[in-house]
Fold this protein.
Amino acid sequence: MASYDYDLFVIGGGSGGVRAARVTAGLGKRVAIAEEFRYGGTCVIRGCVPKKLYVYASQFPEHFADAAGYGWSVPKAKFDWRTLVANKEREISRLEGLYQNGVEKAGGEAFHSRAVLVDAHTVRIESEDRTVTADQILIATGGRPNPHAALPGHEHCIFSNEAFDLPELPKAIVIAGGGYIAVEFANIFHGLGVETTLVYRGMEILQRFDMDLRRMLHETMEKKGIRILCQEIFTAIDKRPDGRLDAHLSGGEVITADQVMLALGRIPNTENLGLEAAGVELGKVGEINVDKFSRTSVKNIWAIGDVTNRVQLTPVAIHEAMCFVDTAFRDNPTKPDHKTVPTAVFSQPEIGTVGLSEDEASSRFDDIEVYRAVFRPMRHTLSGREEKMLVKLIVDTDTRLVLGAHILGPDAGEMAQLLGISLKAGLTKDDFDHTMAVHPTAAEELVTMYTPSYRVRNGARDI
Ligand SMILES: Cc1cc2nc3c(=O)[nH]c(=O)nc-3n(C[C@H](O)[C@H](O)[C@H](O)COP(=O)(O)OP(=O)(O)OC[C@H]3O[C@@H](n4cnc5c(N)ncnc54)[C@H](O)[C@@H]3O)c2cc1C
């Protein structure tokens, strides 16, 4: 048998790569990992973590306003963007250290370098200008924002990466996109006091989520003061002499703003990685094609996470990493399970969702029941805030299985995690009905909706 420098070499130190490296090293294998930017990857450095911190920051003005109804007088608040950026940086640096140390403590070797394939068993560590060999290679290089290079003036725009570290908070921003990243940033900037416009080419924001939630979130965001323009696209971005930007829209309107942000999807990081040299096949959008076990077209090369363009979420990348370790190093072939993935949109109000939307369920099942409650959450009673909460369950009439659970409102993301367990376990509506409510909570609606709001048979709503 050939002898290699390592049992496993991982390219990419993000959510998936670090987990795979750390766990494999913990098994006593010889493991190395290379990261070209910062350990922790997208999630820790410029994704989930800083995003959630900025969501918290942007919620304070509403908390201050809501406090009055509870008897508090809050003096006029002031916000300092640079303090937020600096404090965020401190936290992500702490996490970055933990990610790298975790691999090293488990016995792995962590390189700060770009790494590329030379052939199926050889990796070039660019910062050291040398090659190493490995029995197994895992590619976990993630993705990056789509630059939308066809848009005239795209070079004036920022992407989610830059949005976290702007030298100053813009007075006005226009964001293009209707996915969760665009929607979350629109809420963040608006909450921080920025005049915010969201421009989306589709009929309604947040494609693939339940339509009820999409519409209600859209309405609520507009009531808060975010301008949302659907069925519009940017045709050009011009820089004005005063340094501000003019965003030209397909409908003829020109919006002037300090920043224009593009959140138009992400593309897999597969260029110049030496994949062709090693014989690794790519798919239509440049993603690495893998089989059900995350193995590429080359037997000893594997790929997980966003670079494979399956479900682009951190817990999914981590799950794929754990399955990879089981398959490649524990002699226990395990396929990642991409079904019934709970997820949240940290919009304001938040979305928490798991399973099928009403439209998906009615196209797959002949007869479904929809349980739906719209109400004012208790915390908004004394505050006087008009915002409503939506809770919705989709049930297969024949089997009583809960097919989908959808929430719009405070803490919806937290609820989605627990609902994820119920749906994954295949619980029925009767199980929900037999569960005692926790009172007074908003979540108790999930177990107290006894009669269907309506039924959808063969695609038609009948009550
Ligand atoms: C703004 C934003 C918000 C998000 N919010 C959420 C959220 O709330 N919840 C959620 O679940 N997911 C969220 N995501 C998605 C999540 O961040 C990704 O799904 C996750 O990070 C994917 O992990 P990964 O390991 O596949 O790749 P990544 O975390 O992207 O890691 C890949 C790493 O590989 C490195 N790399 C690339 N090429 C090379 C090379 N040749 N050599 C060495 N290193 C290389 C990169 O620098 C990067 O650090 C968000 C993403 C964004 C952009």
